[in-house]
Design goal:
Layout lengths: L2 H8 L1 H5 L12 H19 L5 H15 L2 H9 L8 H24 L5 E10 L2 E9 L6 E8 L6 E7 L2 E2 H15 L4 H10 L2
Antiparallel strand pairs: 1-2, 2-3, 3-4, 4-5
Length: 198
């Protein structure tokens, strides 16, 4: 087991605090809801479009770029290994990671075809807002998809997402750690793998 993975495991308690961005003083409930209303509207439009999977995935990537704090999510996913990455590697990783999560979660959202996401509640949690939506799909019981919204980047963006209780940040941190382990800590090889993953 790599030392990087040991550090990740050892520091989970402290690192979990990173899921709550440091400053979000200007953001209010109405703004958080407005962001997720826009996000949900964009997702619903894509899943109702009848376009091919490849076209939908491209559009989901645009949605992630518009509504998600991708630099934060990517940095969290890379974790302690980010400290040894060069600026060029961080940039390449963020680009590859954006494509990866767009493909991965775009395919998940594509399962919503014929259904709909609807905002149901907004709750302040420390210094961010949790905006809960209900996914209503044909032939399935409704389930919750929650978005955590902050303005830490200077814009109102979501920085984490829960689908049926599964935490995007922690899931992707584990996935990237496993990919690095497979490549014996080689960041460039992991980035190349990431471009094909999802």
């Amino acid at each position: 087991m790599r030392l990087g993975m040991t550090r990740r495991s050892f520091g989970l308690g402290a690192l979990a605090l990173a899921t709550t961005p440091a400053t979000a003083w200007a953001l209010n409930e109405g703004q958080a809801r407005k962001l997720v209303d826009g996000l949900v509207g964009a997702i619903n439009k894509v899943i109702d479009s009848g376009k091919s999977e490849a076209r939908m995935i491209r559009e989901f990537e645009q949605i992630f770029r518009r509504y998600a704090d991708l630099s934060y999510v990517a940095a969290y996913a890379m974790g302690s290994d980010g400290r040894r990455a060069t600026a060029a590697q961080k940039k390449a990783f963020t680009a590859a990671f954006t494509g990866y999560i767009s493909r991965k979660y775009g395919k998940r959202f594509r399962e919503f075809i014929g259904g709909q996401l609807e905002v149901t509640k907004v709750k302040k949690v420390k210094n961010y807002y949790a905006v809960t939506t209900l996914a209503k799909l044909r032939g399935q019981s409704p389930f919750e998809v929650s978005f955590h919204v902050s303005d830490r980047s200077g814009k109102d963006l979501f920085f984490n997402m829960y689908i049926e209780g599964v935490n995007l940040l922690l899931t992707e941190r584990t996935e990237i750690g496993a990919m690095l382990d497979k490549r014996r800590g080689d960041i460039n090889a992991m980035i190349n793998d990431l471009k094909k993953a999802g």
